[in-house]
Amino acid sequence: MISNDDFCTALADRGFDFVAGVPCSYFSGPIERLTRDGVYLPAANEGAALAAAAGAAVAGHRAAVIAQNSGLGNLVNPLASLTATYGIPVLVFMSLRGWPDPSQDEPQHEVMGLATHKLLDAMDVPHLTVPATATTADLADVLDHADAELAAGRTVFVLTQKGAIEKAAGAGSAGAVAAGAAAVAAEPGAGTAEPDAGAASRARAEGLGRVEVLRAIEHLLEGAAVVSTTGYTSRELFGVTGSKSHFYMQGSMGHAAAFGLGVALREPGTPVVVLDGDGAALMHLGTLSTVGAEAPDNFVHVVFDNGSYESTGGQVTTSHSTRFAVVAEGAGYASARVCDTADAVTEALAAALGGGGPHLIVVPVAKAGASAFSRATAAMTTTDIREGFAARLRGEEHSGGG
Question: Which SUPFAM superfamilies match (predicted)?
Fold first, then answer.
């Protein structure tokens, strides 16, 4: 058996300073230790954990994920369209519930236990195994092989059997309870939400456009690390700015905020602006809670709300019944505003970039129909996008792309 200390020391010795995850009892010991050391980010779901780790990785840090294989389905989206597509190396420790003998585990683990290896193989994801009989030397050997995959820009899974790693003293252990209490001790948002119920309908009726807003705030974005959600938002941001330093997401819908959070937590001196959409934000609304709990003061979250999935044909979302500003305030954001003019957005963003976050700015906009702009990948590769954003974080210029 590998002790908690040996497991965490092995990660630290190899430079891993960011671990996000969703708990499994197989990893209860390391999670308790990593939480105590201030290295662990408790994510709302496994996909968000991977997206946050990807953000930290692009920011130049070695990042890992801890999860149970029952959550592999949640990982598939960012695994297939973020880390694989952009060549982002993340180390994923995943427990092997329901394997090798499903009858020795709970019934809900049977299907995934038998399918885990096959699913990873189908996605061409490299994976290694830490058996129940593993020693610290065995772990070192596995990590040596994993490092080779990471060096090639690939996300790699380390599948971990029951009993391989020492468990925590108990679910209610003093360390875990103390860490949890500290995490919730901070006051929630400062009561600055401005949930103007009529703002959305007014802005949509008056035709406030996302492109209009992007043009108005373009000069402010030049001083920030910008992450834009998939769909028309990324197309229009690239079309308006032409910047090769923003991170344009194509895929991994709903995970822009988690990716930006990973960047913000590891680059506290850099303002991080996430340009999100209502449909994407709704898809992983739990990430707002993670942002509020971590409370990075350099994090600004802008949600363009047009009440639709515009790039897939304008199908309606449920944002009409969701008051994002109120949700964000309840989740612990320092401020949340609804802005229904380009001038108001500009003023709010300028203030938010001064720090004291996390801040949410909701921008009700009209549906624009088909976008007049091409995807960023019409001019750059996904590698160019990753490297351009990483160079921005290092304070350098990147000349990649056409």
Answer: Thiamin diphosphate-binding fold (THDP-binding)
